[in-house]
Amino acid sequence: MPDNFPGAATDPETLRSLIADGLERARSRTHTLTACDEEDLVKQHSALMSPLVWDLAHVGNQEELWLVRDVGQMEPVRCDIDHLYDAFQHPRSRRPSLPLLSPEESRKYLAQVRTKALDILARTPLEGAPLVDRGFAFGMIIQHEQQHDETMLATHQLRAGAPVLRAGTLAADVLPTDAPSLPTEVMIPAGRFMMGSSVEPWALDNERPAHAVDVPGYWIDAVPVTSGAYRCFIDDGGYQNSRWWTAQGWNHLREAGLVAPKYWERDGDRWIRTRFGVVEPVPDDEPVQHVCWFEADAYARWAGRRLPTEAEWEKAARYDPRSGCSRRYPWGDEDPAPHHANLGGSALRPAPAGSYPRGASPLGVRQLIGDVWEWVSSDFRPYPGFNAFPYQEYSEVFFGPDYKVLRGGSWAADPAACRGTFRNWDYPVRRQIFAGFRTARDAAPAEVR
């Protein structure tokens, strides 16, 4: 494991420095996403999402609960607000009615908590008990804040009005100059591989433990399904033909009035979309996003294919046939760099399909990390030998058929909260998340010989 990965650092001071940098990077992003008018912060832009000001104080409250009180065993900063920021007590739709901290109070609270957390980091041995070994609790809080930063980006996408976020640009050397020559699909050979992780220091409980999985041979798309390809499904009457949809999906389509991905609208003979306040033509070469699981599944059926299983997705992303080992990422074990994947949120959009050739898997599958979360066919289930840690509510209460798995991370995910073993999950009707998909098919017996 590379030394630049926080949990892999052997020198305690190096590890502390890397953790401090991760905490600061997350906090800087949080402040950037909440540097808007107070009205925007306290308003609920959609019943699907919390007001931004709730997320702002919630990340501080979680940092206080785990780092200040649990790891540091220090006196509470604000125990009187715990119930307000408990996500299980208050559904998102009801959070605007709570007596939340104001934006100014929230920022002051975050600063107080962070001062204490950094003091605790400086004096805590980062070894021994599972909660602190190799900085796990600190890594958990970094990932938690980055996940809420992605959630806040989804809220920004839902808000009406003039743009408040400025998009960055993608480097020329990551764009797909070889797109016309890319294969449409890649063969993944049959065989066993190690799924999940038992060694990744900051892996969350649902990623553990590593376990061997036998996977038959299959083909998987070399790149995610594009908006242009998805438009063909729409133009062919995909939303009017029940044969492509599960019964549950067809019922949802009719009840919700689905006709295209979220944020798409007809404009004469073309499709346009609203992206963070900007109205623009839908780019055919980008991975399609803001589709629910039912839409992804229907497209795959229409195309004569299927969604990959979670094991198939992870094998495509991690398995190296030359060594027979599972990597941390498609490109290897080193942490993501800007030339590997579209991560971090600055682009405000996916990169064109086929981008990031240096982030490809050993077999040539691209964009498995970043750009769009990818729906897979699997329900969210525990791995064999699963052990809830450090609390049941992180994963265990969500296991079952109600949730579908997403893998790979989106352009809005931070590298700290995205890796080859990372598992995301959501209801199959969700569309405000930055989700797309790729398809797969079984390999014929002759193809796997």
In words, what does this structure look like?
The chain is of the alpha+beta class. It folds into two domains: 153 residues, Up-down Bundle (Four Helix Bundle (Hemerythrin (Met), subunit A)); 202 residues, paralog of FGE (formylglycine-generating enzyme) (Alpha-Beta Complex), CATH 3.90.1580.10. Helix content is 29%, strand content 14%. The strands form five sheets. The protein has a four-stranded mixed beta sheet with strand order 12-11-10-13. A three-stranded antiparallel beta sheet has the order 1-4-14, with helices on one face.
Task: Please report the total strand number as a whole number.
Answer: 14
Rg result: 22 Å
CATH superfamily of the largest domain: paralog of FGE (formylglycine-generating enzyme)
Q: Please identify the top-level CATH class of the largest domain.
A: Alpha Beta
Strand content: 5-15%
Order of helices and strands: HHHHHEEEEHHEEEHHEEEEEEE
Average pLDDT figure: 95
Number of helices: 9
Q: Mind summarizing the main beta sheet?
A: 4 strands, mixed
Separation of termini?
34 Å
Set down the secondary structure blueprint.
Layout: H1 12-33, H2 38-42, H3 52-71, H4 103-123, H5 136-158, E1 185-188, E2 191-195, E3 211-215, E4 218-221, H6 227-235, H7 247-256, E5 264-267, E6 270-275, E7 278-281, H8 293-302, H9 310-318, E8 319-320, E9 325-326, E10 373-380, E11 400-407, E12 423-426, E13 435-436, E14 440-442
Parallel strand pairs: 10-13
Antiparallel strand pairs: 1-4, 2-3, 4-14, 5-6, 6-7, 8-9, 10-11, 11-12
